[in-house]
């Protein structure tokens, strides 16, 4: 459903996390910012009731500097697959700032990555900016081309 109630976010795909850490390293010393998109765990062969983060969407018009990154919120997809945010702190601090916390209320999960952007250089937070667990799953990601694989009947069903 297009505007179904938000499901729990149970984890992040290992390849998605690796991609984001690499993108943050490439953006350093500026902040990196993206929007997290999810796929139902059952669609990925995981026996869990909830979504797994499978995609990082870079929103057109995103601006970044060494101290902040901002995005054009009107360009963020407003659908059930948008489940969080991900950004980097080039200074390596893995705690949300006051500005981060003000943005967190919209989605159920937020990830902060820090220099040097290694596999353990990230933390996840809930809507209130409190630490939360986010398991890493080694799953096969959906084919990106399948994003555009829909028909008018699919659109009508969503509406």
UniProtKB/TrEMBL annotation:
Keywords noted in UniProt: Hydrolase, Metal-binding, Metalloprotease, Protease, Zinc
UniProt keyword annotation of Protease present: yes
Domain spans labelled MPN: 10-131
Molecular-function annotations in GO: metal ion binding; metallopeptidase activity
InterPro entries (UniProt xref): JAB_dom_prok (IPR028090), MPN (IPR037518)
GO biological process: proteolysis
Protein name: Mov34/MPN/PAD-1 family protein
